Amino acid sequence: MNQNFSLDPSASVLLPVAKKEKIDTVWDRHKAMQPQCGFGQLGICCRVCWKGPCRIDPFGDGPKRGICGANADVIVARNVVRMMAAGAAAHSEHGRHVALALLGVAEGRLADYQIRDEAKLRRIAGRLGIEEAGRGSHEVARDVALLTLADFQNQDHHDPCTWIKASLTEKRLDKLAGLEVLPHNIDAVVTGIMARTNVGCDADPVNLVLGGVKGALADFNGMALATELSDVLFGTPRPVITAANLGVLKEDAVNIALHGHNPLLSDLVCEIAHTMEDEARRAGASAGINLVGVCCTGNEVLVRHGIPLAANYLSQELALLTGAVDAMVVDVQCIMPSIAELGSCFHTEIVTTMDDCKITGTRHVSFKEETGAENARQIVTLAIEAFKRRNPQRVLIPDFKETSIVGFGAEAILEALALLDAEDPLKPLLDNVVNGNIRGIALFAGCNSTNAKQDSSFVTMAKKLAAENVLLLATGCGAGAFAKHGLMNQEATLAWAGETLKGVLTAIGEAAGLGGPLPLVLHMGSCVDNSRAVQVAVALADKIGVDLDALPLVASAPEAMSEKAVAIGTWSIALGLPTHLGIMPQVTGSKVVTDLVTETAKELLGGYFLVEPDPEAAAEKLLAVIDERRRALGI
Ligand code: MSK
């Protein structure tokens, strides 16, 4: 039965435990929700005012307009662009948090943080047009932080956000400027979307969707600054060997699961936990403290510190069902409220840490950057106390973990390529794309969804594309899926890569001293780190002298789920990438909106959504797109 829900072997071990103990999981609740609301699935239910809710009859003779007169196109457009705004808000709030922390460090107010990658700070300053030569790192950091924060404050509509200007090709910026979709101020753009989708405002679906595209590009801007400034504060990822899946939990250790997205607290927990090993041992944990990751906080500490990844999104409850997690520490985003109940079924401390992200029934430690190390110490102490209450009889750790080589940010990829050509690091990549050894590049991003069999499409598509010599990059819970299923190690490359791709990955891996190929799928980081893939793509496009929509580069989110994924998918098409969705987006109640994001987008932007739930067919379609682009490039 479990095999229908998830490809993850840990689910097969732990879902029977949930059933026996009468604990509901996400899959039980999904089942209980059937049949799901057809109006919602089509996007034609409107709740923007209290005259409603209204819904459009999509097939029969029922209402074709809501009470105010809004038709299906307007309702669908309003709903989906509000999702884009929510996604942009989430990523950008994360980014603002990091930027404010950098400012605090620069001004000497945050003793628990430091600039860990000064070279990157100086490179960023260069990109943003800030003078750095001969200046102290704190002085430069202050200017970088203030210029970044101006992306939340600028009131000049004609002056686009700094980060997006510094992150795309000139041609793409011109195209987006021509469509008037370049964001000038993240907060203003998000507010603008909420305003124009309010009752009685914008009722032109095309105009609404263009407003949404601007919101999605604000999301890109927020992600780019979040990623880059996090690298300055916490270090830029470099390849590291670690492991993934629930077998990374240890019976004889205090297990602390770090869950959410923002590295501001989790990075300090990593640091402080090292200093508290003796306390854990005194409490009876002979192996000390074992930190593991969940979702994208998991990815953050995975790619920077090699902390093993226990679970991606849909597996977060499974981690608690092991009975071995002593504390699950959560920050923001993608945290199922259900974990409060699951934690209470065991001895597990669920610790919320952000004042705007509490969960009833859990413990809250109010995290502040000023007291970050102390907060981290409090949390580790709670975990050690909980460990003392753990019932060993209820511990069941599935014996599944896969070796994973992770930490391939843009810098790491370019550094690896530089080992083949120090003068011109992009040349080996470009040459191999041109000669066809690398047929194309696919970025796998996004979430897990109960609307699909967990992880399954990721794995099927990756194996098929790799066999066809497509270079694979991954972020977020998609990356988590590949790590858990053993596609981020050298054995996977030897087993699944096509001959020419294998040759390229082997040449780079051996030059990098890995004694074999690079892993089959390169882990670029958390879902906020999709901007890393854009950095590589922009470098490649600039080298060839083309725009992003000319590259044989595609994106895929086989299990897209969150509003953040809606925003990411939309900026992906705005940047010119054909973007596969494995889940039917909630827009099909409007032909206008559906055509806009699948067909018109292709003409206007080069990128477009391609919806295909079947992973084999999806891989075929992406290969066809890659080949079409190769032909257009004359290669
Ligand atoms: S955690 S947004 S389920 S990738 Fe980034 Fe995973 Fe998607 Fe959340």
UniProtKB/TrEMBL annotation:
<dbReference type="InterPro" id="IPR016101">
    <property type="entry name" value="CO_DH_a-bundle"/>
</dbReference>
<feature type="binding site">
    <location>
        <position position="68"/>
    </location>
    <ligand>
        <name>[4Fe-4S] cluster 2</name>
    </ligand>
</feature>
<feature type="binding site">
    <location>
        <position position="54"/>
    </location>
    <ligand>
        <name>[4Fe-4S] cluster 2</name>
    </ligand>
</feature>
<feature type="binding site">
    <location>
        <position position="261"/>
    </location>
    <ligand>
        <name>[Ni-4Fe-4S] cluster</name>
    </ligand>
</feature>
<feature type="binding site">
    <location>
        <position position="46"/>
    </location>
    <ligand>
        <name>[4Fe-4S] cluster 2</name>
    </ligand>
</feature>
<keyword id="KW-0411">Iron-sulfur</keyword>
<dbReference type="GO" id="GO:0051539">
    <property type="term" value="F:4 iron, 4 sulfur cluster binding"/>
</dbReference>
<dbReference type="InterPro" id="IPR016099">
    <property type="entry name" value="Prismane-like_a/b-sand"/>
</dbReference>
<keyword id="KW-0408">Iron</keyword>
<feature type="binding site">
    <location>
        <position position="296"/>
    </location>
    <ligand>
        <name>[Ni-4Fe-4S] cluster</name>
    </ligand>
</feature>
<feature type="binding site">
    <location>
        <position position="334"/>
    </location>
    <ligand>
        <name>[Ni-4Fe-4S] cluster</name>
    </ligand>
</feature>
<dbReference type="GO" id="GO:0016151">
    <property type="term" value="F:nickel cation binding"/>
</dbReference>
<feature type="binding site">
    <location>
        <position position="45"/>
    </location>
    <ligand>
        <name>[4Fe-4S] cluster 1</name>
    </ligand>
</feature>
<dbReference type="InterPro" id="IPR004137">
    <property type="entry name" value="HCP/CODH"/>
</dbReference>
<keyword id="KW-0533">Nickel</keyword>
<feature type="binding site">
    <location>
        <position position="477"/>
    </location>
    <ligand>
        <name>[Ni-4Fe-4S] cluster</name>
    </ligand>
</feature>
<feature type="binding site">
    <location>
        <position position="447"/>
    </location>
    <ligand>
        <name>[Ni-4Fe-4S] cluster</name>
    </ligand>
</feature>
<feature type="binding site">
    <location>
        <position position="49"/>
    </location>
    <ligand>
        <name>[4Fe-4S] cluster 2</name>
    </ligand>
</feature>
<keyword id="KW-0560">Oxidoreductase</keyword>
<feature type="binding site">
    <location>
        <position position="37"/>
    </location>
    <ligand>
        <name>[4Fe-4S] cluster 1</name>
    </ligand>
</feature>
<dbReference type="GO" id="GO:0042542">
    <property type="term" value="P:response to hydrogen peroxide"/>
</dbReference>
<feature type="binding site">
    <location>
        <position position="527"/>
    </location>
    <ligand>
        <name>[Ni-4Fe-4S] cluster</name>
    </ligand>
</feature>
<dbReference type="InterPro" id="IPR010047">
    <property type="entry name" value="CODH"/>
</dbReference>
<keyword id="KW-0004">4Fe-4S</keyword>
<protein>
    <recommendedName>
        <fullName>Carbon monoxide dehydrogenase</fullName>
        <ecNumber>1.2.7.4</ecNumber>
    </recommendedName>
</protein>
<dbReference type="GO" id="GO:0050418">
    <property type="term" value="F:hydroxylamine reductase activity"/>
</dbReference>
<dbReference type="Pfam" id="PF03063">
    <property type="entry name" value="Prismane"/>
</dbReference>
<dbReference type="GO" id="GO:0006091">
    <property type="term" value="P:generation of precursor metabolites and energy"/>
</dbReference>
<dbReference type="GO" id="GO:0043885">
    <property type="term" value="F:anaerobic carbon-monoxide dehydrogenase activity"/>
</dbReference>
<keyword id="KW-0479">Metal-binding</keyword>
<dbReference type="GO" id="GO:0004601">
    <property type="term" value="F:peroxidase activity"/>
</dbReference>
<dbReference type="InterPro" id="IPR011254">
    <property type="entry name" value="Prismane-like_sf"/>
</dbReference>
